[in-house]
Amino acid sequence: MSFLINEIYPCLQGEGVNTGSPSLLVRFHICNLRCTWCDTPYTHTFKSDPVDKKNPSGKQKFVRFSLAELVKRLKEFPQKHLILSGGEPTLHNLGLLMRTLGDEYSAEVESNGTRIPHKQIPNFLVTDYNLMQWNISPKFSNAGENLVPEALAHWAELAKNHAHVYFKFVIRKDYLNADMQEIISIINQHKISANKVLLMPEGTTIQSQIENIWLHDECLKHGFRYAPRLHVLLFGNLRGV
Ligand code: SF4
């Protein structure tokens, strides 16, 4: 069993219900999707890491860790709250990782919601869902991707019995009506509670994260939460913060 890790760094949680919490971001390498507006395309390839200015050689940056090596590396940092992001982190056995790290650690997972870990990852236990918060960000036509209905139904069902499952949808200002129509349809079909839904403005520039009264109004209208991107507001598109 190995874990492909793109980067690890301390930061304030940049998105979602825990925005601003001191955390350790663990970015897993490789994703099963190819969203048109993906802000981490450097996790997609085994060949090189061309967008990393700190690594201009273009050589591979990700590191393959064994479970023991990854646990040892994470314990070198003082932060005990992990953001397990990607790429797509559920391609790895997060349950085993959290069980091995032990009770002093908490985690939240940033997943695209296209996978069902206990069915697709050997030794991921049903009880492992309780070890983490799940921030599910379904990708649909606005990302050039298709939903995986069976997986989305799984997360929606889990949300009914698990307090820490949230659905975060990325919205594009220029396509607000179309995006909202699709999101409302997804929420109705899967009976997702409005208080579990967050709307996040798409964009990797500071400008994209301000003047978002349009999104404030949509959240109020539907009873959704507003999820600004704190790390973009603070640093723009700088990587590793
Ligand atoms: S799911 Fe996330 S990491 Fe994967 S392609 Fe889409 S935006 Fe990028």
In summary, what is this structure?
The protein is 27% helix and 21% strand. It has 241 residues and is of the alpha/beta class. It is globular and about 45 Å long.
What does this 3D model show about the protein?
- Residues 18-237 form the Radical SAM core domain.
- Its EC number is 4.3.99.3.
- Belongs to the radical SAM superfamily. 7-carboxy-7-deazaguanine synthase family.
- Mg(2+) binds at residue 40.
- InterPro entries: 7-CO-7-deazaguanine_synth-like (IPR024924), Aldolase_TIM (IPR013785), rSAM (IPR007197), rSAM_sf (IPR058240).
- 27% of the residues lie in helices and 21% in strands.
- The protein contains seven helices and nine strands; from the N terminus they run βββαβαβαβαβαβαβα.
- The two termini are 28 Å apart.
- The relative contact order is 0.15.
- It is an alpha/beta fold.
- It has a single domain (2-235), classed as Aldolase class I (TIM Barrel, Alpha-Beta Barrel).
- It has a nine-stranded mixed β-sheet with strand order 3-1-2-4-5-6-7-8-9.
- The protein is globular and about 45 Å long.
- The mean pLDDT is 90.
- The structure holds iron/sulfur cluster (SF4).
- Residues 31, 33-35, 38, 40, 43, 86-88, 112, 139 line the site of iron/sulfur cluster.
